[in-house]
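Cast an eye over this sequence plus tokens and walk me through the fold:

***
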Amino acid sequence: MRKNNQDSGYAGPNFLLIADGMGGHAGGDVASAITVSRLAELDREPSGEDALEILRTSILEANDRICRGVAEQPELAGMGTTVTALLRAPGNRFGLAHIGDSRGYVLRDGELQTVTHDHTFVQMLVDEGRITPDEAETHPQRSVVMKVLGDVGASPDLDLTLREAHIGDRWMLCSDGLTGFADVADIARVLAEVSDPDECCRQLIDLALAGGGADNVTVVIGDVLEGTVETAQGSAVGSVHVNPQYAMIGANTDAEEAPTDAEPHYGDGDIPTDTVPLQAVSDADKQEPTAEVVPPSQRTDRAASDTDEATKEDDLDADDDEVEKRSYLGWIIAGIVIIAIAVGGFFAYNYMNNHYYLTELDGKVTLYRGLDTTLGPIELSRLEDTTDIEVGTLNSFSQDRLRGSIQADSRGEADRIIENLRKEAERSGNVSGNVQDATKPSDPAPSPPSSEAVDPSDAITEESQ
């Protein structure tokens, strides 16, 4: 449903990476592209160097590039990105670096394990025992990230760990566009049942889209295999692929500023004319004043009288000006308030008229237009369409979301969500019809690019809704 993709990802034979950008229009795109562009250089055979130190210094360099990019283009201020990276290390191990709320998982012996810790406000509440993990899943501030890479006024605080590599492990890195809209149990099932990494990525993305798909979805999968397998060069997706020019922002470090002297220097005998103050003189100033003869005895009284009169006139003029300014200011404020109310009403009406949500009605997936709320006795929505999709045929995550509501900002977005729910239901063999009256099928989700495996096969798939 997003207009642009702020995710960037990379998969190669020795390195996997996910970066979910944030910071408003273009800012997140730039931050994730800069990060993946810089860190993709790590995709090489492991050497004797410390993998965690390589990750740390490389991520800090990416952070410096982002900050230089903000200095070059101030409109990008506040941009940042999450980073979750997996690097091959000597001795059958992986170096894992993490900051933000993207996640890393490993499927080992049929059990899915989380190997990263979310740097979010709700995770902090969970860690402190103030809320439960189940409550965190629906907390209204679950998207508030406490640590990221970028222009956030603090040095990155990275989680760095070494992980053992076991033959048969399946690693998955993903943005919160997957974990925020698909149930972890369903994710584990797909990872365990679908052997082909590309197809596995596609089915995981289908889960996220069926769950509402309101965020960019990027999934990276790497299988750990025995022996050496020839692999092609790693591939990048997302913003860094679509907007390669973003990766160059903040990268120029060779330019040196010309030295400047503390005091300006002028050549011998030269006088800088711009240091001489100039005074404008009007034609009236050039005329000689008319002389007036005043007797000495009258000069003091007359001067005092003239001063009093001038003071009174100045005070009256000041009062008139103040009254006039207040009058104008009142009208201006009233006009601004009226315009604000009119504009706000227009946008509120337009938003409600173009907003949709999906919910459950009599066991069916049902589409409403408007807002899922009331204003006193006034309903702010109306029934738009009823589908033939049985809610009971959907996975548990989709059912939970429908019991609340799945929001859509246009009819087209609503139709795409319905189509994704339909595909999910059809996989269980329980739906064959179409949406009653008005729902039109959308185009299938684009196929993800092919990818390689991590030591030695991996795959990466990305899609922006």
